[in-house]
Amino acid sequence: MKNTLQSNSLNEWKTGKWVVFSAMMASSMAFIDGTAINVAIPSLQHDLHASGEQLLWILNSYLIILSAFILFGGSLGDKLGRKKVFGIGIIVFMFGSIACGFSQDVKTLIAARLLQGMGGALMIPGSLSIISSYFSQKERGKAIGNWSAASMLVTTGGPMLGGFLADMGLWRYIFFINVPLGIISLVILYLKVPESRDDSGNNIIDYWGALLASLGLATITYGFISLPDKGISNPFIYGSLFIGFLSLFLFVIVEWKSKNPMMPLQLFQISSFSGANLLTLFLYAALSAVMFFLSLNLIQVQAYSQFHAGLSLLPFSIIMITFSKTAGGLIEKFGAKIPLTVGPLLTGFGFFLLGFTGLTNGISDYWSVYLPAIIVFSIGMTITVIPLTTTVMGSVENHFSGTASGINNAVSRAAGVLAIAVIGMVALTSFKNSIVKVNESVHLTSNQISLLKEESTKLGEASVPNSFPKEKKEIVKMNIKKAFINTFSLVMFISAALACLGSLVSFFMIEKRL
What we know:
The protein is mainly alpha-helical.
């Protein structure tokens, strides 16, 4: 009997290794894109003359479409065939990446990022869904662990590569890298990976749900990102926020009444599934804000090169790769609750430490200032990520695997959208106020203060206007850096609080054993 089980397991992995490899290569496109672009943002901002608000849109245009339609992509794969929809997503993502690489202005880049988001919405949920549907429950945890470890291994060089290319003035090649990865994934997918689908339902697609989710996230994002510049009294701001929240409310109503919802609300009656997704919302919102503002801080304020900024995040990747398989076994040894409570708590403590880093003497201070905090939050994320994914996929029945993956990915991406929008709005407002406050002792004129406020819209790219008196320029330049550090600390403390809130959610909602 034992030999029969071992033989079945070996046969399962003969094809299974190709399933994991194809999913890993496709996922790597999204992972590399996400990690590398954060480091290259300063070069991109300089070359395309982008404001701070436009930077937030370059990130969020992709995330809005991804988070809104990833549910649609997950349910589409379940109904029409996971392999088919996964392959289409890879192709669309590749074309979006090529368009991003050739963009000559901010508006074109934002439009190309929208196309990338649509491709990602079809591609990303398919990777885990194909793995979960192919492997038996016994082998699924091992397969997900291998997928996570391999994906992290491929994407380790993302920040360093992004920084290197940006320093060379070649940030566009960050997007072009996706083309060979996509081709490899497509070839393996169509030659080696079997098709699978959910045969228990019909093929009706929830178009209204996808439309309302997209409209809601887009208008809420517009409202929060534009609020510091236009003010809450502007009709475009309160109007867009009203439409956004109304759309998301109607989305819930539509999903509740639909016979074929892309987000079956009954899944949220499962405590561990609800808790895991709420944890995902808080933790990934915090992580998105930290990664974005940490890159700006290191490059634009602490005077790191973009390559060194990418290199500074290498411990995060090394720790994730080295201990990801070990972390995958935590859920079997201790259950879900313990790692999903301890992990976010450690992550939050790491973010909290980053809030005290202050203004340093450059890369020479990295080892004593930034490295300890990065190690702490890296350990926290490593403890959390695989148990979190396993909890989401293991708390629902197999025929809901694509939908569950889609929901969790949608939540993580929506968390990024909301973090960049809401925390970005807080940061823009904080920086605008701080840049005036720290320069009170300089006795600037009202016109000079107005010019500084205009500069604050550039975030870390803000500089001293040429019209300022020579004797005041150096003082104001240093004060601008101090103002940004104040804003950076505020963002880190907010992120720490969100991660700790996720830990509390896990403690009260995640069941000890699935």
